[in-house]
């Protein structure tokens, strides 16, 4: 079972952030306190491999788990720490067989209907959203709000990471509604000051962890 603290500040790379490359994004996010990284690139090709290896090594040297989005074979090839799978990807069971018992495996579950028909027995966590409006994912499911997120999180058999429109200002609201972690993309990748946003988000996550230890929630 994954330590939920690892999920607290979850950064997902953005391949469409112009000159702010995924590698620079990851460095900025980790400096701000990111505790886990997911590499997401829907148009991945061999020309991206060099940067992917740089990101893997940067994360490894800082003891930050590094996951690949969707692609189990790529995760195995570059010896990533795990993979995150969507509803239309290969199953978590397949990922576990290929990547091994120590791999971190996550799955996207957007609503109660998907939760009812998704086998999470091989997963360490699941991601749910969008909690708030987001422009990063064009085909995102309907916004569920904190209350809708809580409905899914309360029934989940694994820790849940909130995603979608999350900022330093609303991160605590996600934790208070059952999130073990919050995942962000554009709050850092499309920010006017990415380093400042990463720092502020890190502080919000640290505050959430402190309050959880005190027993306020979680």
Automatic annotation (TrEMBL):
GO terms for molecular function: magnesium ion binding; thiamine-phosphate diphosphorylase activity. One of its GO terms (cellular component) is cytoplasm. GO terms for biological process: thiamine biosynthetic process; thiamine diphosphate biosynthetic process. Binds 1 Mg(2+) ion per subunit. 4-amino-2-methyl-5-(diphosphooxymethyl)pyrimidine binds at residues 38-42, 69, 108, 137. CDD domains: TMP_TenI. Keywords: Magnesium, Metal-binding, Thiamine biosynthesis, Transferase. Its EC number is 2.5.1.3. SUPFAM superfamilies: Thiamin phosphate synthase (SSF51391). 2-[(2R,5Z)-2-carboxy-4-methylthiazol-5(2H)-ylidene]ethyl phosphate binds at residues 134-136, 165, 185-186. Its cofactor is Mg(2+). It catalyses: 2-[(2R,5Z)-2-carboxy-4-methylthiazol-5(2H)-ylidene]ethyl phosphate + 4-amino-2-methyl-5-(diphosphooxymethyl)pyrimidine + 2 H(+) = thiamine phosphate + CO2 + diphosphate; 2-(2-carboxy-4-methylthiazol-5-yl)ethyl phosphate + 4-amino-2-methyl-5-(diphosphooxymethyl)pyrimidine + 2 H(+) = thiamine phosphate + CO2 + diphosphate; 4-methyl-5-(2-phosphooxyethyl)-thiazole + 4-amino-2-methyl-5-(diphosphooxymethyl)pyrimidine + H(+) = thiamine phosphate + diphosphate. It is an enzyme of class 2 (transferase). Residues 10-188 form the Thiamine phosphate synthase/TenI domain. Pathway: Cofactor biosynthesis; thiamine diphosphate biosynthesis; thiamine phosphate from 4-amino-2-methyl-5-diphosphomethylpyrimidine and 4-methyl-5-(2-phosphoethyl)-thiazole: step 1/1. InterPro entries: Aldolase_TIM, ThiamineP_synth_sf, ThiamineP_synth_TenI, TMP_synthase. Mg(2+) binds at residues 70, 89. Condenses 4-methyl-5-(beta-hydroxyethyl)thiazole monophosphate (THZ-P) and 2-methyl-4-amino-5-hydroxymethyl pyrimidine pyrophosphate (HMP-PP) to form thiamine monophosphate (TMP). Belongs to the thiamine-phosphate synthase family. This is Thiamine-phosphate synthase.
